[in-house]
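Ticket #4471: structure export looks truncated?
Reporter: QA, pipeline team
Priority: medium

Steps to reproduce: submit the single chain below to the structure queue and open the exported record.
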Amino acid sequence: MGIIKAAVGALGSTAADQWKEFFLCDSMDNDTLMVRAVHQQSERSANTESDPNVITDGSIIAVNEGTCAICVCGGKVTSVCKEPGENVFHSDQSPSVFQKGGIGKLSGVVAKKISFGGDMPVVSERIYFMNTKPIWANPFETRAGIPIHLFDTRTGLDMDATLHCGGLYSFRITKPEIAYKTLIGNIEKTYNKAFLLRILKSEILTVLQSACSSVSAKGIDSYRLPELIPQIAETIRDTFNRIEEEKHGISLVDLSFSSFMLSDTDRNTVVRLQRSKVYLDAQFAAAGLVDSMAEALPIAAENNGGKAGFLCTVPFGNTPFLSFSQEAEEEKPKDTTWQCPCGNSCTTKFCMECGKPNPNY
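Actual output as written to the record:
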């Protein structure tokens, strides 16, 4: 009874898989990299019981612009359809009576199915559609910063600084077979870019650090940092594509920076030293002092506590530049009264009574 049941099952499943199928994939969005193909079927179709893991010989695969079809048989990539248009699927594992010579091959298929219990397909066949359009607007950012060598020609500052940058990049799958084998593999329905972006971002940041280190090896002025953007972007594209295209079948299409600047601490250090260098000139220093005092005077005038006066002296060599002080109080007249031996109290050099001179003179 088991053999009879297996034979009936084998004949039934083989008969259901005789219909040729038509595979078509609508345009995939910017987040989708690959989908498993499902044959097109309407309500009037008689092909309702075919095995989804069997692609009948002679089936049609329609490939749209920006996509490619990957045919997998028994877990192995057998063909890749990159050219837009209709492609005919050929398979000796799943013959069809509607194909020339197909009837003679059916007995072998039925016999194999009986040996597996009657219902199992002889081989698993799948078609995947892969998105080969550029995948746009993927963000990247150097949160920890990138070390670069900074040399400021104005002040002579030579130090290691931290560069923070971020932007967007786009990529595309240029070698679908390699991408399928090394990244995506067998999927049930859909594969989106979320997992892949983590890998790509890590690779981009690695190349970015190497590029920044290379171009700043001899020291770079802080004001020239924007000049490095085109050179660094080109270096990243060339290096990334040379490695990743052969490794994962992916190429970098475009990379742009939305921010490319020193850390706040390093930027403030450069600005402070540049200002200090300017103030070595006496005229610039005097102008800076006047500006500072002009800002300080209104603040001091509003201060009700303590004395209103203040003293500010800036030495240039041994000569004070400016000096402000509270108006000195009027000096009290000196007491010149003296007592004459005659008993008269005098304020002049001679006594007005006896004519004796003031002994203090």
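Status: closed, not a bug. The export was complete when the record was re-opened. Leaving a note from the reviewer for reference: The chain has a mean pLDDT of 78.
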